[in-house]
Specification:
Helices cover about 35% and strands about 15% of the residues. By secondary structure, the chain is α/β, with parallel strands linked by helices. GO terms for molecular function: S-adenosylmethionine-dependent methyltransferase activity.
C-alpha cells in the first residue's frame, strides 16, 4: 500500500529547491500570460503553490491524482478549486488556461 505524506510534500516543495521556480517565474510571467489570466497547477499536491500564483495576480485551479493531497489542498486553500484527475489526464477544454504549471510530477519523494 502506498501512503502519501502531505507534511513531507510541503517540506520538499517549500525547501531549498523551491527558489528555482519562485526566483524565475515572476520575470518570465512578465513576458507571457499577464496577471488576471488562468493558471492550472497540474499535480498541485497540497496546494502549496496556490498563494504564490494568487500573489502574482492569477486565477488558479489545481488538479492532482491523489485524493489525500487534494483534501490537504482544500483545507489550506478553501477558496480555490481543486479537482481529482486520472493519471496524465487533463480533463478541461482547450484554451481554458493561459498557463499550465507542473512541478514534482515525475518524481514524488514524499511517497513511501
Amino acid at each position: 500500500m502506498v501512503s502519501y505524506n502531505g507534511k513531507m510534500y510541503d517540506e520538499v516543495a517549500s525547501g531549498d529547491i523551491c527558489y528555482l521556480y519562485l526566483r524565475d517565474a515572476p520575470d518570465l510571467l512578465q513576458k507571457y500570460p499577464p496577471p488576471g489570466n488562468k493558471v492550472l497547477d497540474y499535480a498541485c499536491g497540497s496546494g502549496i503553490r496556490v498563494p504564490f500564483w494568487q500573489g502574482l495576480g492569477y486565477e488558479v485551479e489545481g488538479v492532482d491524482i491523489q485524493p489525500e493531497m487534494l483534501e490537504l489542498a482544500r483545507k489550506s486553500n478553501p477558496l480555490f478549486p481543486f479537482r481529482f484527475i486520472k493519471s496524465a489526464e487533463v480533463a478541461v477544454p482547450d484554451n481554458q488556461f493561459d498557463l499550465v504549471f507542473y512541478c514534482y510530477v515525475l518524481r514524488k519523494p514524499w511517497v513511501y
